[in-house]
Write a structure and sequence with these properties.
Its main location: membrane. This protein has 428 residues and is mainly alpha-helical. The protein is built from 15 helices and no strands.
């Protein structure tokens, strides 16, 4: 672990790490502030709250599906550091739009800003992984990938906790959220200025701006490699699982656990810390080797913990009459620590499953094609996540409760385990 952490002192890594960390922090600070404001301050109907969360998740993910092919082409054809600086400049403008949406409690404006945040993340997504094999030694790539993933989820933790603290159950604190989102965007733009140049590794190619045609060509050019195909599909299942879980958390906390936004922040925080720990732990177990041998057992154990979470939620004794547990009273509940430990188990084994799969993507292909490989992965991932959000939304409209949908998540873990086993057999 100490050798991995030494990367944080190197300029070829730390500006990328800081840029990604602050970007993920800001995305989640805004998104969770918005979700809390709408869930607790605007809507008062459980079905509407769940449907809004599903819609918001789908809107944030949609740009990845539409524009990842273009993002991958740009990252492979131009200096990745320059693209990053442009994207982070746009984040400042988006933060202003999102701030206006929060200030005036305008749901359409907030959702517009969320879509734009997803768009700028789409163009940074291929860069953050494609830069790693360009700036790091081969035996550092897994460690760098683990640190990026860990940093991302620590940032998600901080963003969700701050979003839940700033906006209370009465909808107060909006002005602090507006200032914070803008300030973080500015600091992130300053941080990316220190990124070393990451020029293209081949001659400039013509950019195809037809996102449908370029997406099809991108996927077909990548998915014919069996281990890439298996890694991308397995990652897609993981993120579909994750998106469904994250959609469920705020309404689950409010309507099943009958708790305040601070508890919803705690849920997402524990989930984020768990994936960060899993990201670091798997690097330790594999000793920097790129391997999928722990993937099947990791995601099976993730599914086991999801089933346990289902039974805990199903038997939870909530408060009546619209009363909510505060953070303090929730922590004093007899089942609170078991619930949090179960959630941590879900996240830790999820992190152990997904990190080596990303390392496959960045080490299997030539360095000149890494960004497009990541972009192809993002297209498939986002498509599956949108389908997951739509499935959750559809099940909710059919009357399937938030708690019962946890069983769908557990079933998906079994499929992910089979994919992980196939990848292990194909590569190891």
């Amino acid at each position: 672990m100490s050798s991995a952490l030494r990367l944080l002192a190197k300029r070829r890594f730390w500006p990328l790490f800081i840029t990604q960390l602050l970007g993920a922090f800001n995305d989640n600070l805004f998104k969770f502030s918005m979700v809390i404001l709408v869930t607790y301050g605007i809507y008062q109907d459980p079905a509407q709250e769940f449907q809004f969360n599903a819609l918001a998740s789908g809107i944030f993910i949609l740009p990845f599906f539409l524009f990842s092919s273009l993002a991958g082409q740009l990252a492979d054809n131009y200096d990745k550091a320059r693209i990053t600086r442009f994207v982070k400049t746009l984040e400042i403008v988006i933060a202003i739009i999102g701030g206006l949406g929060l200030w005036y409690q305008s749901v359409p404006t907030m959702l517009t800003a969320l879509f734009l945040l997803g768009l700028q993340s789409t163009f940074f997504g291929p860069i953050k992984y494609a830069v790693l094999p360009q700036h790091l030694e081969k035996d550092e790539v897994l460690a760098g990938t683990g640190l990026v993933e860990a940093g991302t989820y620590i940032a998600i933790l901080a963003g969700t906790i701050l979003g839940g603290i700033i906006i209370d159950s009465e909808g107060n604190g909006v002005e602090i959220a507006v200032f914070s989102v803008l300030a973080v965007a500015i600091v992130g733009r300053i941080g990316c200025e220190f990124m070393p140049a990451a020029p293209p590794q081949k001659k400039l190619e013509k950019i195809d701006f037809n996102f449908i045609r370029s997406s099809i060509q991108l996927i077909s050019a990548t998915m014919h490699i069996r281990r890439l195909y298996l890694a991308i599909v397995a990652i897609s299942f993981f993120w579909t699982i994750g998106s469904v879980l994250v959609i469920q958390f705020p309404p689950l906390v409010k309507n099943v656990l009958t708790s305040t936004p601070a508890v919803a922040s705690l849920f997402l925080g524990v989930f984020s810390i768990g994936i960060a720990l899993g990201s670091i732990l798997i690097n330790r177990l594999l000793k920097s080797e790129v391997s999928a041998r722990f993937a099947p057992i990791s995601v099976i154990l993730m599914g086991v913990f999801v089933v346990i979470l289902f039974f805990i939620a199903r038997n939870w004794q909530g408060l009546s009459g619209g009363e909510l547990y505060t953070f303090q009273t929730f922590m004093m509940h007899d089942g609170a620590w078991v619930l949090l430990a179960t959630l941590a188990g879900v996240a830790i084994f999820g992190g152990m499953f997904v990190v080596p799969l990303y390392a496959f993507l960045t080490t299997t292909v030539d360095i000149s094609e890494t960004a497009r490989t990541i972009a192809a992965n993002n297209v498939v991932n986002s498509g599956c996540m949108v389908l997951g959000a739509l499935a959750a939304l559809g099940l909710s409209m059919l009357g399937v409760s938030t708690t019962d949908q946890l069983l769908l998540v557990a079933a998906m873990c079994v499929v992910a385990a089979w994919l992980g086993q196939q990848l292990h057999l194909a590569c190891d």
